[in-house]
Design goal:
Elements (H helix, E strand, L loop, with lengths): L5 E5 L3 H12 L3 E5 L5 H4 L4 E4 L1 H8 L4 H5 L3 E2 L2 E6 L4 E6 L1 H7 L4 E4 H12 L4 E2 L4 E6 L4 E5 L4 E4 L1 E4 L6 H6 L8 E13 L10 E6 L4 E7 L4 E9 H5 L9 H8 L7 H6 L7 E7 L7 E2 L2 E3 L14 H17 L6 H29 L5 H14 L3 H10 L18
Parallel strand pairs: 1-2, 1-12, 2-8, 5-14, 12-19
Antiparallel strand pairs: 3-7, 4-7, 5-6, 9-10, 10-11, 13-16, 13-17, 14-15, 15-16, 18-19
Helix pairs in contact: 1-6, 1-11, 3-11, 11-12
Amino acid sequence: MARIGKALVIGAGLGGLTTAAGLLRQGVETEVFEARPTPGRLLTGGGFMLWHNVFLSLRRIGLDEAVAANAVRIRHHEFRSDKNRRLARWDLDGPTDKCGAPACVLRRSSLHKVLTEAVGDHRIRLGARCTGYTQDADGVTAHFADGSTARGDVLIGADGLRSTVRATMRKGFEPPPRYARYTAWQAITQLPGEDVVPTGTFFNLWGRGGLRFLYCRLGENEVYWDAVTSDRAAAAGIDTIGSTRRDAMAHAYRHWPAPVPQIIASTEEEAILPVPIHDRPPAGGWSQGRVVLTGDAAHPMTLNLSQGAGQSIESGVVLAGLLGRADSGDVPGVLRQFEQTRRERTADMVTTSWKIGTLGLIHHPLLCGLRDLFMRTTFDSIARGQSYALMLDGRLERGPVLPAGGGGE
């Protein structure tokens, strides 16, 4: 039987580009279709943390070193209260040495550029808004808003939380994404000074009133931060009608320990992006014939494990590995195998991340104190062990490096 002749990827986000890069590495002709019209519209967003498992996955498609070269290695993950009390401190050097892969922070745009270069600009069609698909026994046809079509042996829906491919697969009806009841205000600011924010530590602060704050150094002059505010906190005084976003954040975190107020004050208004956080409860049904969902189209999750992007990358590598070895006639079965391989792991991530997020919704000072006590007594031991057991379950370390094939020249 003939191998897969062409793969169509809908969505040029992290999951879609990772899948495309993996397929191209194995010599599968691949074309990526993205609704956004210009490259600049793709390079948005702040920074994030990529854990060890992500670099193990990127290694399988030969991109771990390129991504690490654009990143800052994290050696400690420190949890603190809004009273500046240390709740836990995780040493990441031990796990890095054990699994042979680091944990790092970097700009989303930097990761996107590495993946884009691996795929090749000429394989990414911008301004191509997918409106649906049709398929038969021999292939699948993607339809676009401008009236054009594209034909392939497999169609991969990597078009995000509100995926058109997912909606088409479900015949136009599905419950909306689940809102987590909090917003992440993300930004990157120019703030030099190791005495202000030391390189190599990711700070994760938990406060009262439904507030959290995360920050880390991205480079000599840059700091990435995330202010996480519950809806009740917003109702209690985060006003972006009567003030700017920066002033609203400065007011909400005015009593927090240094350097939080300084980080906010140093940030340009235009750099602050509020992102309401959603996921979907774990559910099956990722494939239909020659069409499959991956990344946020299949398993969107909240930010609390810093695994949303990581799981999109993992899924992209696994999917590419399975399809790269498949014959065209075997595609429907391979796509079902992909879901069976990934469903349990991603479901655990979605559920665990959601549960952690509920801890940040606590408002009452007494309950916040009990939460802090819980974190002080469990996060350096039980929680850390559970987190690493979930993150490094052994599956990725056994994955082969995908052979170089048709690359991104």
